[in-house]
Amino acid sequence: MKRRSRSDSNDNVRNKLIGLGENSMRKSYYPELRDRINELERFRALVEHANDALFVLDAFSWSFADVNATALKKTNYSREELVESPPESIFPKKTCILMRTVIANSDAGPSHDDEDISITELLGKDGVSVPVEITVRVHFVAGRLYLVMVARDVTRRLADQRELQKTRNYLGNVIDSMQSILVGVNEDSSVVLWNAYAVAETGVVEKDALGNYLFDVMPEVRKFKNLIERTIRNEEAGGTEIFTVDHSGETVFFEIVVFPFEGEGESGAVIRIDDITARTRMEEVMVQTEKMMTVGGLAAGMAHEINNPLGGILQGSQNILRRLSTEFQKNHEVARECGVTFEAVHAYCERRGIISKVESIQQLGKRSAKIVANMLQFSRQTGGQQFCTSLVEIMNTAIELSSSGYDLYQKQGRAGLEVIREFEESVPDIFCAPSEIEQVLINLIKNSVQAITSVRKEDPNKVGKIYVRIGREGNNVRLEIEDNGPGMDADTKKKALEPFFTTKGIGEGTGLGLFVSYFIITQKHKGSFVIETSPMLGTKIVIKLPVAPDCIGLD
Q1: What is the pLDDT at residue 555?
Q2: Residues whose CB falls within 8 Å of the CB of residue 544, separated by 6 or more in sequence, listed in order
Q3: Which of 81, 84, 232, 313 lies in disulfide reach of 77, CB 3.0 to 4.6 Å?
Q4: Spatial separation of the C-alpha atoms in residues 244 and 151, rounded to whole Å
Q5: Interatomic CA distance for residues 468 and 394, integer angstroms
Q6: What are 174-185's pLDDT values in tens digits?
Q7: How far apart are CA 405 and CA 403, in angstroms?
C-alpha cells in the first residue's frame, strides 16, 4: 500500500477549505445577486418596450452607447447600424448644437435638475422623418459623461394642434367676416372677444380692447349695463334693444342682442350689435307705401265721385254757352217772348264778360277732368303688364300729371317754369309697362322742378327750364330730361342711385325716387339709365329703352 506524502495531504486540505469558502460565499451572496439581475432585466424590458425612443450618448466619444427598441423602430435602423451612426445622422443640426451646448454647460458633478426640452425630429433610414419632443439630461456614470435623450413621437399631437388651429382660424375668420359688432365679455364684464367689424366701427384695435372693462371701451352700451350684467349672472336669458346714435348729423339705428355664455367653469355673455338703419327706413317706407296705397285707393274712389259733379259742371257750362249762342234760332224766339231782343241779351253778356267766364269754367272743367283721368290711370295696378306703347304719349301724360302739383307751370316769365318738348317725328313704340315708365318720368320731372325751385330761393330772377327730348338712337329710343338747376357734385352723383340717399330736407323725400326709377328702367325694361351732371350746370338724365321689333309698324 502506497503512502501519501505530507505535501499531498496539505494540498487536499487546502482545496477542501477553499471549496468550503466558495460554497459559503455563494450561499450568502447569490440571492441578492439574483434580485439585482432580475431588477436589471425588468428595467431593461421597461426601457426596451417604452413608447418613447431612448438614446444614451457618450459625451466623450460623441457616439451612441445604447438605444432602445422604440428608437430602432422610429428610425428603421438596426441596433448595430444606429450605435455605429454619428448623432448628426439621427438628429438635425440644431438639435446636435443643443446637445453640445448642454455638454459644455455641464459641471463636473451630476446634474439631475437641469433639462432641455425642444421640438425636433428623428432622421431615419430612407428619408424617414418623425417629429418628436426631446428631453435631454446629463448623467455621470463611473466618471464618464452621458446624455440621456428621451424622444416622444408628437405626430398625432401636432396633427391635432394643426386641426385645432385650423378650426380656430376658421371660426376666427367667420367671426371677423360678420357684418356685425361681436363682443364677448367674461363674468367681470372684461372684453375677451373683439371682432374685426368692432374694430372698423369703433376705431378701437383688438389689443386695446381685450382685457379692458366693456363700458370703458364702448360707452355707447352703458345704458344696457343692467341687461348685460343680469345676462352674465344668468338672471336673464338675454334680450334685444334698439338705440340710436347721431353720426355726422344723421341718426343711425342700432340693434343690440345679448346672449348668455357658459363654458367649463366660466360664464359671460356675447353681445351682437347690428346697424339696422336701412331696415328701419325700409320698414318706414313700407308703412308709408301702405298708407299711400290706402290713399291711392281713396283717391281713386274720390276721383270717381268727383267725376260726377264735374260732368254736371261741364254739361251745365256747355248748355249755358249753347243758350247764349247766336247760331240757334230758339234763343232768338225765347228772347222775343220775354220782350227783349236776343242781340241785346248777347251784347249784355259780352260786355259783362259772362260768356268768357263760362268758357273759362268749361276749360278748367275739362282740365280737371283730364287730371282726374290721368290719376285714375296711374293708380290702376297693371301688375307690370307690358305692351307696345308710344313713349311720346306717356311723356305728355306724365308732364300734365306732374304739373298739376306745381303752380310754377301756370306762371309766365321769370316767375314761371317752362317745359320744352323736343320730340322727333316717327319715334317707334316701345314694349313696356306704361304705368311704370310714367312713374319714372313723373319722379324725374318732379326732381327737376324741386332742383330749380331750390336755386330760385337764391336767385329769384333765374328762369327755370326743363328740356324733354325723345328720339331714336340705333336700336333704342333715347329719352333725355335736362334741367338748368344746381346740378350735383361728384360725391352726390356717386350716391344718387343709392336707396334712401336724398339731399332734400326732412319730410321732403325718402331717397327712393332715383333708385326705384333706375331699377324699373334697367331691371324690368332692360334699358340704361345714366346721370350727366356738374355743379351749377344742371342735370341731365339719359334713358335708353330697346325698340321691340314686334312694335314696329303697329298702329
Answers
A1: 46
A2: 473, 476, 477, 478, 479, 527, 528
A3: 81
A4: 61
A5: 12
A6: 888 888 899 999
A7: 5
- Helix axis angle, 354-379 relative to 277-323, nearest 10°? 150
Q: Are 170 and 180 in contact (CB under 8 A)?
A: no
Instruction: Confirm if 487 and 538 have CB atoms less than 8 A apart.
Output: yes
Q: 481's torsion region: left (phi>0), alpha (psi -120 to 50) or beta? A: beta
- Mean pLDDT in each 10-residue stretch from start to end of the chain (555 residues)? 53 58 56 68 74 89 89 89 89 88 68 62 88 88 86 89 89 87 91 91 90 90 89 82 78 88 79 85 65 60 78 87 86 86 87 88 82 63 72 88 59 65 89 86 87 73 86 92 87 76 62 76 87 86 87 59
The owner of cell 299711400 is 292
From 402, 465, 390, select the one nearest 439 (Cα to Cα): 402
DSSP state at residue 308 = H
> Could you tell me if 132 and 120 are in contact, meaning their C-beta atoms sit under 8 angstroms apart?
yes
Residues 145/126, Cβ–Cβ less than 8 Å: no
Buried b (16+ CB within 10 A) or exposed e, 91-102: beeebbebbeeb
In angstroms, rounded to a whole number, what is the distance separating the alpha carbons of residues 190 and 267? 12
Q: How many C-beta atoms surround the C-beta of residue 208 within 10 A?
A: 14
Supply the Cα-derived Rg of the chain in whole angstroms: 51
Looking up cell 389689443, which residue turns up? 207
Report how far residue 89's alpha carbon sits from residue 438's, in angstroms, rounded to the nearest whole number: 86
Instruction: Please tell me the distance from the alpha carbon of residue 66 to that of residue 459, in angstroms, as a whole number.
Output: 103
Q: Report phi then psi at 405, rounded to 5.
A: -95, 5
d(CA 443, CA 120): 73
Whats the size of the chain, residue-wise? 555
List of E strands, 75-215:
115-123, 129-141, 144-153, 181-186, 191-194
Query: What's the burial of 453, exposed, middle or buried (CB within 10 Å: 0-12/13-18/19+)?
Result: middle
Amino acid at residue number 156: R
Nearest CA-CA partner of 430 in 502, 344, 521:
521
Amino acid at 301: G
Distance from C-alpha of 14 to C-alpha of 28, rounded to nearest angstrom: 21
Tell me whether strands 464-473 and 476-483 are parallel, antiparallel or unpaired.
antiparallel
Of 107, 109, 98, nearest in space to 136 by CA: 98
Residue 253 φ then ψ, to 5°: -100, 135
User: How big is the CA angle at 492 (ends 490 and 496), to the nearest 5 degrees?
Assistant: 120
In whole angstroms, give the CA distance from residue 141 to residue 145: 7
Of the candidates 521, 509, 447, the one whose C-alpha atom is nearest the C-alpha of residue 479 is: 521
